[in-house]
Amino acid sequence: MIAGAADPSLASAYGRLLALLADSPHVDVFLDQIVRVAAEVVAPAVACGLTVRRDGGAMTVASSGDLAAQGDEIQYGADEGPCLAALRQGQVVEVTDLRDDRRWRGYREHALRLGIRSSLSLPVTVDRETVGALNLYATQPHAFTDTAHRHALAFTEQASVALTVILRQTDQALLQQQLSDAMASRSVIDQALGVIMGQQRCTATEAFTLLRQASQNRNRKLRDVAAEIITQVTGESPQPAPGFVSPRHHT
């Protein structure tokens, strides 16, 4: 039995993952549910994001809240941080108190301004390859207790297994299209953030907040608002994102 599997909250989480697999959901839906369930199971995480490899870099394909989305974006801009370390090293990376942590200086100051005080990043593997990282953020120091650690490890292991199953069962052509759609959405948002930063002379974090507010005020998807901004500035539709770097297929 996997450590912590007897815990009622974990049992419920596993049941939800199995239900998603049984329903054969769109990959976007599946990824979105993984981060939402993780944020619920691993208390006291405020938000969770899922980072995956992209064309030699990384991007967030799902997040349960603004804190995770913005925390991830800061790391991509600085090219350093706990989730990138977990992705690159294939190891669990914890920040117990960001105020006292001197790693990743380019990430630290901006993350503290967001209110991030501790985090836990866990590698997500498919066919023994690290393809992503599950990133849990908290607004208090020393948030992730031994119990939280066990829950996070157990859930990530099950999520990796579930992701492996859905990747193997989904038609490869459809899968690539679904993943490309997720990448395209993220790419459009990234481009719009650049436009806003140039126009408003603000940071990436502030630009993301402005974009999110516009999305909420207009009751439109974040990607659609971002695409409109890019079209207005360039006169052309946003260009597609690079493809998803999938794990090697084993026959």
What's the N-to-C terminus distance?
Answer: 28 Å
Total strands: 5
User: Helical amount among residues, as a percent range?
Assistant: 55-70%
Mean pLDDT: 82
Quickly describe the structure.
The protein has 251 residues and is α+β, with helices and mostly antiparallel strands. The chain has nine helices and five strands; from the N terminus they run ααββααβαββαααα. Helix 1 runs parallel beside helix 6 (146-169), helix 3 (66-78) packs antiparallel against helix 5 and helix 8 (204-218) crosses helix 9 (222-234).
Short key terms for the protein model shown above:
251 residues; alpha+beta; 9 helices; 5 strands; disordered C terminus
Describe it:
It is a single chain. With 251 residues, this protein is of the alpha+beta class. The protein is 57% helix and 15% strand. It has nine helices and five strands. It has helices spanning 8-22, 27-41, 66-78, 82-89, 105-114, 146-169, 172-200, 204-218, 222-234; strands at 47-54, 57-63, 93-95, 118-126, 129-138. Strands 2-1-5-4-3 form a five-stranded antiparallel β-sheet, with helices on both faces. Helix 1 (8-22) runs parallel beside helix 6 (146-169). It is globular. 41% of the residues are buried. Mean pLDDT is 82; it is low at 1-6 and 242-251.
